[in-house]
Amino acid sequence: MIPSIHKRGSRTIGLIRYLYGPGTHEDHIDPHLVAAFDPLTPDPGRDPSATYEQLERLLDQPVNALAQDRRPEKHVWHLSVRASPEDPILSDEDWAAIARRTVAATGVAPDGDERACRWAAVRHADDHIHIVATLVRDDGRRPRLHNEARRAQAEARRIEADYGLRRVTPGDGTAAKRPTSAERHKAERQGRERTSREELREHVRRAVAGAQGEEEFFDRLAAAGLLIRKRAAPSGDLLGYKVALPDDRNRDGEPVFYPGSKLAPDLSLPQIRERWSGNSTEPDHDSEARTSRAGQPMSPAAARRRATTAVWQAVLVVDHGDDRAVAAQVAAAGEVLDALAKTSAAHTRRELREAAFAFERATRSHIRAERGHDHALRQAARDLVHSGPALGRGEDGATTAMVIDMVFFLVTGAAHWHARHQHAQQAAAARQAAEHLRAAYHAAAQQPMGVLHHRGRDLPQPVKRRQAANLRQAVPELAERILAEPGWHALATTLADTEATGHHPATLLTQAATQRELDTADSLSDVLVWRLRHIAGLPAHAQHAPVGEKATPPSSSLRTARPVTDLPHQPRRGR
Fold first, then answer.
1. Cβ–Cβ under 8 Å, residues 406 and 310
2. What does the alpha-carbon distance between residue 386 and residue 402 come to, in Å, rounded to a whole number?
């Protein structure tokens, strides 16, 4: 249950007309009073003889009784209380009790106070009520509303427990604005999976991912088919922007525009510019690696390998960096997820999109991000976008599985960091994103892991015994568990491939195993396969490597991926 205190107003009649009217999208059904300060309060929704003006005069009577110079300019208090979508439909009597508890908790009308503020609760939809009150008590004094938002939230938690409703995780004021019931009903009528606000937020986040300036950002919005309105100062300087879906219209047939700041706090133009202000001014010594000899962008597979390296570097910061640097990495991780969702193949796209959608909440907190620390991740997002769509097979598909595996570490690290800082909503969002990443990983890894598994089953017995000995030498405490896993065959193949390219398998395996704790992994073999193939620069997809023979050394494009030799030791939430 979510209570929301709206901006104070000066015209009670205007709010009453809205609450009893058809609504912006004509979704106000049967508006009526469920409770009020006086049981005899007229209800224009159910009593044909009652008028809006009567209700206004009754509520405003204490205000009008004051001398003109003593009347508060903003005397209209407005709060909405909304149930969660999965909650049962409450009765009018339930909502009446909730309204009384809320005005008492906030200080508008404390229990037993006969001279309190006047108020009325209107219901015009199944899932919420609106409470309107006038902020002058019957004795002419002002109510004590210190921290009323916090007190409303605390009472909402108690109401959830008493009525058996969904327990909402406490927030910190950094969440994006939730879609209204009108927006949700409109989406249902139009057969949309998400509301226009949510779709636009997703489009804008994807346009931001890895963008380096305003021109590129707005070009991406236009390419996505959005309608754009820019707000400029008299000097011509750009101050802000609004976006709309072409087919989202109001009843007058006009597009419904949303400012960036109303989509999410970090999507206002000033907040987006902060990301660009962190762009590195140092020369990019890796620029040649990002393009082919023909001057074309790097391949999707190469972009995913580079992203894997950037993600691992970010994991180090999240586990051991200062909070402002960590906040920057977590925010940039959202850009990587958006870029992956935009460019990955169909069989992983839905889960990646859901992961990015969930993780969006985890990208913001009251800890201010120190831009610049996120350069590598933002560049990784840019590379992913500019490399274009990846195929779901071959090296594209296998490197997608590799980078998802690594992003999973980053997202779970973000969840632990948020939890340590008591960021309940952000931690929950990161954990939800991790579940979607787990599903996306299984979809992406099935084919390349299957290839490695079959190759491993066909390895000559002397090769298998040698790799098992390397395993026992490198990780004696985990060796028997790994040997019993179905994924051992894929790991044996990878160890043989590292040996064929000149590495010492036991040494490399020790390095991979000590990079991060393995005890909590569902599949130790999977984790070690991707670590080894990444560190050694092996092709992620090994379908064409000859069985029992030396594999072809990695190409120069794969050699550019820098091995990560020092990773934090944090429990791994395995797949």
1. no
2. 19
Q: What's the confidence (pLDDT) of residue 31?
A: 92
CATH assignment, 2-168: 3.30.930
At residue 557, the pLDDT reads 32
What are phi and psi for residue 433, nearest 5 degrees? Answer: -60, -40
Determine the 3-state secondary structure of 391 from DSSP.
coil
For 256-312, the DSSP string reads: --EEHHHH-GGGSHHHHHHHHHTS--S--TTGGGGB-TTSPBPPHHHHHHHHHHHHH
Within the chain, all domains assigned CATH 3.30.930 are found at 2-168
Position 520 scores a pLDDT of 56
Q: Are 210 and 335 in contact (CB under 8 A)?
A: yes
CA 160, CA 3: separation in Å to the nearest integer?
12
Return d(Cα 248, Cα 398) in angstroms, integer. Answer: 39
Helix (H) or strand (E) holding 284: none
Contact 218, 231 (CB under 8 A): no
Q: Which two tokens stand for residue 399?
A: 């490197």
Are 564 and 515 contacting, i.e. CB atoms less than 8 angstroms apart? yes
Report the chain's terminal Cα–Cα distance, integer Å.
32
Burial of 281: CB neighbours in 10 Å, binned 0-12, 13-18, 19+: exposed
Closest CA to 574 of 538, 532, 530: 530
How far is Cα 386 from Cα 346, in angstroms, rounded to an integer? 18
Return the structure tokens found at 71.
């009347």
Task: Say if residues 505 and 467 touch (Cβ distance below 8 Å).
Answer: yes
What is the C-alpha separation between 387 and 297, in angstroms, rounded? 6
Residue 285 pLDDT exceeds 90? no
CA angle 177, 180, 186 (to 5 degrees): 130
Residue-level pLDDT at 552: 39
| Confidence (pLDDT) at 561 | 34
Q: Alpha-carbon distance 519 to 529, whole Å?
A: 16
Output the average pLDDT for the chain: 88
